[in-house]
Amino acid sequence: MRILVTGGAGFIGSALVRYLVLEAGADVLTFDALTYAGNLANLRDVEGRPNHRFLHADICDRASVTQAFESFQPDRIYHLAAESHVDRSITGAADFINTNVIGTFTLLEAARHYWSALEAQRKDAFRFLHVSTDEVYGSLGPDGLFTETTAYDPSSPYSASKAASDHLATAWQRTYGLPVVGSNCSNNYGEYHFPEKLIPLIILNALHGKPLPVYGDGSNIRDWLYVDDHVRALHLIGDRGRVGETYNVGGRNERRNIDVVHGICASLDRLSPRGTTYSDLIHFVTDRPGHDHRYAIDASKLENELGWTARETFETGIEKTIAWYLANESWWRPLRDKVYTGERLGIAANAG
Q1: In this structure, are residues 65 and 59 in contact, taking their beta carbons and an 8 Å threshold?
Q2: CA angle at residue 248 from 46 to 226, to 5 degrees?
């Protein structure tokens, strides 16, 4: 099985590449533009493996995409390349439109032309997995869950750009017959997570004795999904998911943001004690614009139809994650020193 993974040097993408190369035995081409969140160090475990190669290229570059298809001859595309941080989308929406919308269009068109020229057996077996987010559905009230039929209601430039890419993928399946399967996941966490997102930001700020920023009153709720559980689901969807269908992937681990932060602090108090509790560093800050209150995924379709279940609870997953960051300063230190130091992002005032 030859699988092209876009965004394969990012957080979720690299976890997927490691799984495909080391556990599934697939032949993988990692395709990544290496923007600020793309990191070749994420792929160190597959470096030099005969069934892995890397291409530094942008999905918006049609020539590079076409050349990758022609030279690698993939059986599947797992499309994860995206700008993904809501806060950055508030003050820099153009990058999100370019990568998430134009880039997805470019990739779909190249895939369509490649797929249409395949011989019959390979054409029938080909799949394009489009990976997306639960944020396209907007905000839930205190009850209920997102399902695959929930109406789209994006709130941020990021979620709007992902909603657009979802609709493009669906349209290319319905209009041209391209064998697209989709997925929408809840909030991921785990190893190699770029430190702008809540969990790694809190871990690293705590280790540096810096304030632990919590938006608003911390009551916003997210459904947390350990990244290794997610990538198992993605490969299963790519392998057995029905063409034209979407599968929601969630960990059934709803937590308020403030409870996530307190949980991280409690774990760090045990694993890396500092004399006083890390919870003393919690600092409530002005909420970000358009902050959805609650997300929660109903993964019943994936569980019942394809037999997937999450292996990690939030408690077991967060313990593994914190232990990894404590043991891998050589990975995160260059990012904190040179790429992102933990400063506040996504303040919309005077953004133009």
Answers
A1: yes
A2: 45
- Token readout for 348 is 């919309």
Across the beta sheet with 254-256, what order do the strands follow? 187-189, 221-226, 254-256
Q: Tell me what pLDDT residue 352 has.
A: 36
174-186 pLDDT tens trace: 999 999 999 999 9
Neighbour tally for 178: CB within 10 Å: 23
Q: Which residues are marked as active site? A: 134-135, 158
Which pTM was predicted?
0.96
Measured distance CA(181)–CA(282) in Å, rounded? 41
Provide the CATH number for the domain formed by 2-193+223-254+290-313 in this structure: 3.40.50.720
Structure tokens at 312: 């990690």
| Mean pLDDT (whole number) for 10-26 | 98
What does the block give as tokens for 132? 């997306």
Write out the two tokens for 75. 């059986």
Averaged confidence pLDDT in the chain: 96
Beta bridge partners of 128: 77, 180
Q: Are 345 and 91 in contact (CB under 8 A)?
A: yes
Question: Integer distance in angstroms from the first to the last C-alpha of the chain?
Answer: 47
